Amino acid sequence: MPGTPRARAREQTLGDITSIGRRHLGEVGAAALSLRAVARELGVVSSAVYRYVANRDELLTLLVVDAYTELGDEVDAAVEAAGTAAADRFRALTQAVRAWAVREPSRYALLYGSPVPGYAAPAERTTGEGTRVVTLLALIIDGAWRSGELDDTAEPVAPVLAPDLRAIRDQLSLAVPDRVIAATVQAWSALFGAVSFEVFGQYGPSTFADPAALFDLVVDRIAVQLGLRRLTHPAPAGSRRKDWRTPRTG
Amino acid sequence: MPGTPRARAREQTLGDITSIGRRHLGEVGAAALSLRAVARELGVVSSAVYRYVANRDELLTLLVVDAYTELGDEVDAAVEAAGTAAADRFRALTQAVRAWAVREPSRYALLYGSPVPGYAAPAERTTGEGTRVVTLLALIIDGAWRSGELDDTAEPVAPVLAPDLRAIRDQLSLAVPDRVIAATVQAWSALFGAVSFEVFGQYGPSTFADPAALFDLVVDRIAVQLGLRRLTHPAPAGSRRKDWRTPRTG
DNA sequence: TCGAGGTCAAGAGCACTGCTCTCATCAGTT
DNA sequence: AACTGATGAGAGCAGTGCTCTTGACCTCGA
Predict the structure, then answer these.
(1) Sign of CA dihedral A225, A227, A228, A233
(2) Which of A156, A207, A209 lies closest to B160 in CB terms?
(3) CA A2, C1' C7: Å apart?
(4) Quick check: B90 and B140 in contact, CB under 8 A?
(5) Does B185 contact A at CB distance below 8 Å?
(6) What is the pTM of this model?
(7) Structural domains of chain A in order of their starting residue, each with its CATH number
(8) What ipTM goes with this model?
(9) Stretches in chain B below the pLDDT threshold 70
């Protein structure tokens, strides 16, 4: 479809480089990403890949955007499929983030782990895709607020934070008050913490046989603190959350 | 003091290597840590440092233990200085963790950031120092529970988690029930999330003029959800937390 | 049709890395 | 005072990122 055959070939090669890099990222990590190794696997001499990628950092940027896009797509789809209830949408978002992170730990680390020293993702190429998930979270909470699905239990926040919170509200055209934005920020960071703990295996010496159950519990607590009203109708099929509360034996 | 002058010299050199490595870690990051560079700065040829450190990974291990120890010491001191009230001790712990992390971002990343691919800290050398902070947190909560400073608001947890929670309780000789252990785990992960967000600069596009205020707010919310009863007596001097609630003008 | 301009891969090369090996030296131990 | 083991130096191997030059190819327009 796009223009000249040369341009298409170039696009193809660039895609190959990205996908090889994606696999190498998973195998050796961002810091050990080697353009030479990518070239080897591409069946080409090392200097040739510099025709397509300016340097190692640009390959990283390619992979960052690639990862943000895939994560954003999966979260969007999951939230979409979750229906209209804010609590369902919130849970779908958290589950989708966790599922992707567990499946793609190295790419998750690239996005949300410790920064790669000496490398800063160029804002103009990453902020767009990079803010999709947190924006969606904010919109879900905002929607819950507008539709009355949110209990207003958050406490007032320090005035120093007001300008920053107002900036967020303006940028996303939110209707929620400052304290709810702050609560959303905290929910986001708590979600991030829970996922990182599981993905990075940093629960300390303790291990959990069923990390998903622990994650469920944590997300539950986050939702409660957000003021997201619990659903009264039964959970969707496949989600056996809290089965133990209603044994319904016999 | 310790034995032979040779052993003392060796200890000295090892200390020098550690402290040079600590600085390099802050400058170039864990992945780019170079034994050659350390050797250069030590004024010695590269092969010589291999007399002291088996390989790059062992230098990392040295730095991990070093960082855990310093963090543990600072948190211990802060909690100690905070008195006996569980809420104060909890807050002191969080502030000390944040302060150290903000001051030593690369060392924080080494401990709690994305794992360095291909490197796994040997458990027998790191778990001891590595669990000091989370253990202290558990003991603070346990103490609050025993002394009645903890509101029992946590909800019951899924039975699948019971064995793991029991293991934690047994190992630390806690008195708290499963649901409080689970809440503590979540508090720990939420704290980790908040610190990581700030240290790794991953609040997305939003920036906060006063990250400490945001952190205060988040910790407040974590404390509330833990059920840590608020203190009625005035906050210690220097902590102007929530001043805006009691304007007390004129 | 044919030539010019752009595109691409190859290869050599520089400076760096981790790590191993050998060899000389010098200091602590006996 | 003699010995021996810890130590540092140096060479060397295989790998890395990145640059530069060279030669081949392809595409497009005259």
Answers:
(1) positive
(2) A209
(3) 18
(4) yes
(5) yes
(6) 0.90
(7) 1-53 (1.10.10), 63-245 (1.10.357.10)
(8) 0.88
(9) 1-3, 203-205, 231-250
